[in-house]
Amino acid sequence: MTRSCGDCTMCCKVLAVAAMNKPLLTWCPQCQIGKGCAIYATRPAECAEFACLWLLDETMPAELQPNKVKFVTYPHRDGYLVIDCDPQAKGVHLDKKFLPIFARLAAALEPNGGFVLICYGAQVFAMTPRAVFDLGKTRGTHAIRTYVDPATKTIGRITAEPVA
Question: What is the pLDDT of residue 152?
């Protein structure tokens, strides 16, 4: 990884940090906005281990650096891609500038059962190369389920089901 965060601190706002009891969509009290972490050397493991897709994938255009677009993109352990958005980015999943990029990411993930999950706090949208599914305010309370069309081997539907 040759890129660095530079002046980007967007993950310090949009992501939750359990070790610090920091909820989604609030600035971390240790964040020096536009500069970095005040406790960088001793930050929690979940912060130290986190890397967004912009850092991991140098083919991501420079203009998609999270602080510039107001969203953070990262791979989820279950094989899909998460886009966590700052409330200022409301509607980014329908933005003509980003929609083709998100669709290409979804197309690359689909053969392995992946898709793109776009989150505005609790509000969740799931995206395949062909459709956007509004899953409602289901973050943290529902499990994501995909339905594959046996004829085309593509994701035909995505739903959010309550966790028991």
Answer: 87
Rounded (5°) CA angle 134-112-78: 65
Tell me the residue type at 161.
E
Q: What does DSSP say about strands 36-37 and 31-32: parallel, antiparallel, or unpaired?
A: antiparallel
Integer Cα distance of 147 and 113 in angstroms: 9
Q: Do the Cβ atoms of 81 and 117 come closer than 8 Å?
A: yes
Spatial separation of the C-alpha atoms in residues 72 and 69, rounded to whole Å: 8
Alpha-helical segments (H) within the chain = 11-14, 45-48, 53-56, 66-69, 99-109
Question: If you average pLDDT over residues 115-142, what whole number do you get?
Answer: 92
- For 43-82, the pLDDT digits (tens) are 999 999 999 999 999 998 888 999 999 999 999 988 999 9
Give the chain's largest Cα–Cα span: 53
- Cα 113 from chain centroid? 17
